[in-house]
């Protein structure tokens, strides 16, 4: 199955807006963009679009990591996303790779970013230039 067939099978429909979406996903996936913001109402297929952007892009052979940040307690979010080293906080032993790093030059797709602390949001925004990051819902922009 070629890439465009995969796109046609993932984003289904015959409405002109669906054709426009397929065209946009393909154009963005082929562009040199490293950061993409995907937003919309719950249940509108943002995860499907993120997966297709990854599949159609040059990142397809690398990891696709999807994280529901609402499922991670706020006090653990930063260490889960970015990892930690021994001594970073009480009981931090050894080195733990964060979920962002586990994308390993691939795609990190975060859901429910409205729960982020300002510090976690700032750290992630700073890392945008190093990896392809896809967001589900916009939060604040600085």
Distance between the termini: 42 Å
The class by helix and strand makeup works out as alpha/beta
**What would CATH call the homologous superfamily?**
P-loop containing nucleotide triphosphate hydrolases
Overall geometry: elongated
Work out the strand percent: 5-15%
Radius of gyration: 16 Å
Biggest sheet layout: 4 strands, parallel
Task: Give unreliable regions as ranges.
Answer: 131-142
Care to count the β-strands? 4
Percent helix, as a range, is: 25-40%
Instruction: Name the strands of the widest sheet in spatial order.
Output: 1-4-3-2
What is the count of helical runs? 6
- CATH domain class name: Alpha Beta
Topology:
Elements: H1 3-10, H2 16-30, E1 35-37, H3 46-56, E2 64-68, H4 74-82, H5 99-102, E3 107-111, H6 118-126, E4 132-135
Parallel strand pairs: 1-4, 2-3, 3-4
Concise summary:
Helix content is 39%, strand content 12%. It is of the alpha/beta class and 142 residues long.
